[in-house]
Amino acid sequence: MAAGSTFGVGQLVAGIVSPSAAPLVVVGDAVVDRVPAWLKDAAIRAFGAHDKVVLLATIAVLVALLAALAGVLARWRLQAGVAVVGVLGLVGVVAAATRPDATTFTPLPSALGAAAGVYALVVLTRRLAPATDARRRAVLLGGTAAAAVLTGGAGQYLVSTRSAEQSRGRVVLPAPADPAPALPAGLDPADAIASGLTVYATRTADFYRVDTALVVPDVVAEDWSLRIHGRVERELVLDFATLLARPLRERWITLTCVSNEVGGSYVGNARWLGYPLADLLAEVGAGDGADMLFATSTDGFTLSAPLAEATDGRDAMLVVGMNGEPLPREHGFPVRMVIPGLYGYVSACKWITDLEVTTFAEKTAYWTDRGWAAKGPIKTASRIDVPRSFATVRAGRVPVAGVAWAQHRGVSAVEVRVDEGEWQPAELLPSASSDTWCQWVFDWNADEPGSHSLQVRATDGTGEPQTAEVVAPVPDGSSGYDSVTVTVE
């Protein structure tokens, strides 16, 4: 009950101060920032997009166990139980105070929540003596539980009344001054899609999400601004309304996460609306020996993007729209960065609020400090979607299909081989640009019963084939051939 009071009051104060200052969230963020990179990678591989939920649940269970310990100790010696609750509160305060985006008020939810927990523990321990009758015990415990639920619910209500979702609902995106090209004919062949081939245009709801935010930042567009500074001739502060008023560009761009394993699903293709980064950088006079853009998110996350790739003519943008709608919260509302051809950890800063023009020698970013490469060009990759591994197929014509990508270089060919035999050309379906993935299909004459392995490889637009070398995602992306094993009967 005392722990419930802690979280209830903490959530209420966080609803006033900031949703990201809630005790469970600040402790979870501190864990994410401090655990070794290999453990983070293992969590992503094991739990995928649910890794944050697993972490929060684990912390909640540990807190519940410590709360039980505090209750037992308090019946033996009240000061000992209070000390446990106090230490838990201190952990929350320190975690909140050391957040990159911490303010004077960020530790308040943890501090006041801990004070409420100590008070509840003292009152309940003193009043729930062994001789206390059952009715009084039920009233005290039930009243404490109700207070915890009410304060926590009030906190959630305060969060919802000033939420980014409401702000997003008020956003009306302008028509692009430079629309995306129409999608070519021949995409999404019906028989292959029915069998499980990935569709060319990823639905927003299906688009992968990988980031360090335990709780999606709640940024109101009307309050958003971006400061561009550093090695520039003149600084610029840009607000959301000013950004929307500029001539916006719309493009199909495929994003890929550097933690994507061979054959993995952390890749997606969407229609993005934004303003060219190159134009903004020219406006501020970026240069003076700079070679890096140091981007900072509203939650303190940082990334380092090569300046050359942001200004070489590719469609690098400050993005405000995704698939014809304002960015969803989990994908960076109100504004994020997108640079085609680079893995997301060095190019796709969500909830961006600061952009410094600097050098790789002067600064390092979040993932670089954790052992990942400073620059992250996307490697040529391909994936088999159809048939699924361990599937059983009938002898005869078997459609094999999937997707391949080599953003900004494009894909010039895809080949398939059976049982490590000769490589055979697959049919490459058209794509909107070299910055997107492409679909491919291959007709396999499966006339020999038994188990067979299928492999795929792609060749990029420069004529360089995908490497067969098998490497893990760390430090600059995985490589190797995707393969499936199927049984012909």
Structure characterization notes:
With 489 residues, this protein is of the alpha+beta class. It has three domains: 2-162, no CATH class; 205-370, Oxidoreductase, molybdopterin-binding domain (Sulfite Oxidase, Chain A, domain 2); 381-488, Immunoglobulin-like (Sandwich), CATH 2.60.40.650. The protein is built from twelve helices and 19 strands. The protein has helices at residues 2-17, 23-34, 37-47, 51-76, 78-97, 108-127, 134-161, 164-170, 190-195, 240-245, 277-284, 307-311; strands spanning 225-230, 236-239, 249-256, 267-276, 292-297, 302-306, 317-322, 325-326, 336-338, 352-358, 381-386, 392-393, 396-405, 411-418, 424-425, 427-428, 438-446, 450-460, 482-488. The strands form four sheets. It has a five-stranded mixed β-sheet with strand order 2-1-10-5-6. The radius of gyration is 26 Å and the shape is globular. The mean pLDDT is 91.
